[in-house]
Amino acid sequence: MELNITRTISELFSAVSLALDIDEGVKLYRTWRVSIFGAEIAGRMLPEERKNIFYGCLLHDIGAISLPEHVIHYLLKEEMPEDPAMLAHPLIGAEIVSQIPNLETMAKFILNHHEWHNGKGYPLGRQKDAIPKAAQIISIADQIDIFMRNEATRSQADLIKALDARRNRQFSSGLIDCAIEVIGNDRLFEETREQNSLVKLFHKTEADIGEISMPAGVDVIGTACEVFSQLIDTKHPYTINHSNRVSRYCLLIALALNLYHDEVTNIKWAGLLHDIGKLGISRKLLDKPAGLTSEEYEQIKQHSVYTKEILGSITDFREIAWIAGSEHERYDGKGYPQGLAAEGIPLGARIIAVADAFDAMTSDRPYRKAISVSDACEELEKNSGTQFDPAVLKEALPILRNLIVTAG
Ligand SMILES: [Fe+2]
Ligand SMILES: [Fe+2]
Ligand SMILES: [Fe+2]
Fold first, then answer.
1. What residues does the ion ligand 2 have nearby, CB within 5 Å?
2. Which domains, ranges and CATH numbers included, belong to the chain?
3. How many CB atoms are closer than 10 A to CB 376?
4. For residue 86, how far is its CA from the centre of ligand 1 (angstroms)?
5. Which listed ligand is nearest to 111 at the C-alpha?
6. Ligand 2 centroid distance, CA of 274 (Å)
7. pLDDT tens across 145-160, in order?
8. How far is CA 365 from CA 71, 301, 315, 333, in A?
9. pLDDT for position 408
10. What is the mean predicted confidence (pLDDT) over 60-79?
């Protein structure tokens, strides 16, 4: 498999940002719009940081993942948040992003993206030139998106007025002038308003900006998958490290099945990202311990569709998307989302199904305690040929029985 690393990482960022922008089943395209404005303003004021600003805009609110509602609801409501999770989101975001090689500068911009020119921002309370210029550009691009979502400031003229009122408060005078010039571009303004033209413009900007540079000789994609898997698991308090364990079990089972190197890697990464579609499902629903209505259950099932769609937007992840999006299929054809059966289900997905169920059973849940490894294996065996592939189970069981499980 000839994997294009810089293209994959760049597409992965766009995909994750899109997943983070699903609110109650609706794609907001929020960070895509922020990136367009960020790139536009950066082109005029700070061209040397255009790339970091564009990708920084995409990931700037990644630290808001643990908020009960989508971050946009908080931003539309109040200028200065009091919620500790909201106040911490620039710190958390910087921490997440800095774990990926080469992204320290971007992480610094994210850390500063809620600072105000007059020192009244958060979390550091920095002012004027102490705030990196690039962070202020991300911040103003973000603010433009927020104004465009707000009834009172939706028109071009009202938006310009609203921005002007932030002069020397949230932003420097020079930055306000530049942003007003950008907003004054009728064509750009119209194109960012409507979803279809916004998506087109985003891809055009993305192509123009170019791929993010990454150091050679480092497993950048593997690291990024791990970082994003932690992000997925943080969304749900009971699934900390779930994806990492599932991936570890998948890897061992794939090795026991004598699969080729590329297949093993695909299954390992699919294991890390199998629940990425959950980013698009509301936490209220994910945290509901039991008693889901059938409509709610349908919404939760939607995560598999999102997973396939999100990962499928990455050129070199098509196979991974196919595997990860099929992990809830059952061997007897009674699973979802497509009702595939037996060998019609990708092998990687049949492996994840076993690993996922094993980890769920051996982890505590709010409504039940973890069961022992041997009880979990017995349960898997009971469902051989119905839920699980007997051939996969045959190789998986000796592995799982001998594991030292660290799930809590
Ligand atoms: Fe933010
Ligand atoms: Fe799942
Ligand atoms: Fe899972």
1. 275
2. 5-209 (1.10.3210.10), 220-401 (1.10.3210.10)
3. 22
4. 8
5. 1
6. 6
7. 999 999 889 999 999 9
8. 26, 19, 36, 27
9. 54
10. 85
